[in-house]
Amino acid sequence: MNTIMKRVMALVLTVAFATGLTACSTQKPAEEDGVSKAPEWTATAVLYEVNLRQYTTSGTFNEFADHLETLKDMGINTLWFMPIHPISVTNRSGKLGSFYSVSDYKEVNPEFGTKEDFKALVDKAHDMGFHVMLDWVANHTGWDHPWITEHPDWYTQEDGQIISPKNMGWPDVADLNYDSQAMRTEMIECMKYWVTEYDIDGFRCDYASGVPADFWEQARHALDKVKDIYMIEEDLGGLAASNLDYAFDTNYNTKLYETLVEIAKDNKTADKIKLYLSKDENNTFSMNYLDNHDVNAYDRTIYTAFGSESLPAMMSLVFTLPGIPMVYSSDEIAYDHNIAFMEKDTIDWTKGQGDYRDLISTLSKIKTDNAPLHAGNTNEVFEVLDAGNKNIFAFTRSYKDSTIICIYNLSKRQQSEFDLSQILTGDEEVLFSGVNGAYQEGGDNPYARDNLDPWSFYILVR
Predict the structure, then answer these.
(1) Strands 78-81 and 14-17: what pairing?
(2) Which of 75, 90, 166, 368 could be cross-linked to 143 through a Cys-Cys bond (beta carbons 3.0 to 4.6 Å apart)?
(3) Are residues 196 and 270 in the same domain?
(4) How many whole angstroms from its chain centre is CA 334?
(5) What is the C-alpha to C-alpha distance for residues 423 and 212, in angstroms, rounded to an integer?
(6) What phi and psi, each to the nearest 5 degrees, are found at residue 32?
(7) At 49, is the pLDDT very low, low, confident or very high (cuts 50, 70, 90)?
(8) Could you tell me the pLDDT band of residue 1, with boundaries at 50, 70 and 90?
(9) Over the stretch 338-394, which tens digit does the pLDDT of each residue have?
(10) 220 and 114 belong to one structural domain
């Protein structure tokens, strides 16, 4: 849901992270000393948000399955499907309705195909090495959901009438009442259904801050008994950060996204990024992104936000900062179109503003091949470095004997006043670099440079 809430987070210069780096284990307890742990496969996860309705002409599970190879070639290894459930007709918004107005938690939207089709898609994705996550809407249901008539006490009521969530502008949904223990139990059973029957690997939880924290803790505890799952919290304003203590592994790094948009517009300088880096504790880490279904549909496209000049540097930043990178459907072509939310609006894959598939593939490989860039590293050290220039953002990420150094000129102007002598020795290997929208593997070490070109970036290792 498109809920714009803001937060300002504490200044972070050095962050220690704590989750494992070893290969995936499909069955293990996710609780350690009362704190949840993300599955080990998330260390190298590259997340892709799938807008199934708009991805292909038919918008079906079967047609999307034909695109898995392309996504795999791009380095994507984790798929987040926007809600796949049937959409309520009563009080529907738009012609086709919102994905987030669910009429049955245990069925699939016939617009997308059958449950057998979805099972085949998940099986194929797993066989190809993907992990699969579902979008889960626990704050409310659509007005056609059978609970409305069968269990009206499971909903929030005023004067004996079920109501929509207050002050949200969502007339197409009915607010659930979490005082009902029976409803909580059934909601958890519905989530378990997709894990047990379809081997789903986790959930992105819509408007998580609208649901009591103790429910999410109940759900995580129950789900982890079935399978070690990954939980992402949509918490745009940081209102439910305490959920990361146990229920969730990751939440949205919204303030970072908003800051990068302002930097691209030349309204902020790069040094402001350090104010909005998430302080990762209790084995958690942020989800970093340049686009998602909400901002795309209601605010701006990825191309409107960043343009061809800054986009490569911004993508590189999202892949190298602590956390998990997320790519939204059509970002790989910088699609400059606000994809409709409640109507059929198929992505035109021939009308992008550029082709960034190779860039994403290279960044994915750099992230997965270099342990310091893994999400949730045990004993990783992340340090923001001072280059003596507010437009230059530099940092190191170190793990054991390996260190990655990243240097970005996040400005449309050439920078000549800086000092890299305390950052580089000149002996580092350049893994990847970019200048003015062009990028390449390798490149010259910037140690001896007396200027940095607009939007230039360097990823080095020592």
Answers:
(1) unpaired
(2) 90
(3) yes
(4) 17
(5) 45
(6) -140, 115
(7) very high
(8) very low
(9) 999 999 999 999 999 999 999 999 999 999 999 999 998 767 889 999 999 999 999
(10) yes
Residue 304 and residue 434 in one domain: no
Domain annotation covers residue 162: yes
In angstroms and rounded to an integer, the radius of gyration of the C-alpha atoms of the chain is: 22
- What's at 454, amino acid-wise? P
Structure letter (DSSP) for residue 164: P
Query: Is the domain of 143 the same as that of 99?
Result: yes
Give the Cα-Cα-Cα angle 30, 249, 301 (nearest 5 degrees).
Answer: 150
The two tokens of residue 128 are 């190809």
* Helical H segments across 321-356, by residue range: none
Domain enclosing residue 436, as ranges: 388-461
Q: Are residues 315 and 404 in the same domain?
A: no
Question: 182 and 297: one domain?
Answer: yes
Is-contact 450 421, C-beta < 8 A?
Answer: no
SS3 state at 442: coil
Are 84 and 118 spatial neighbours (Cβ–Cβ below 8 Å)?
yes
pLDDT in tens, 292-325: 999 999 999 999 999 999 999 999 999 999 999 9
Q: Which of 425, 327, 328, 422 is nearest to 367 (CA)?
A: 327
- Alpha helix positions (H), 321-385: 357-369
Mean pLDDT of 410-419: 95
DSSP-derived letter for residue 160 is: T
CA angle 120, 126, 129 (to 5 degrees): 145
Any domain includes 226: yes
pTM for the whole structure: 0.91
Residue-level pLDDT at 239: 53
Between CA 359 and CA 345 the distance in angstroms is 26
Which pLDDT value is given to residue 442?
93
7 has a pLDDT exceeding 70: no
CATH number for the domain spanning 71: value is: 3.20.20.80
What is the number of domains present in the chain? 2
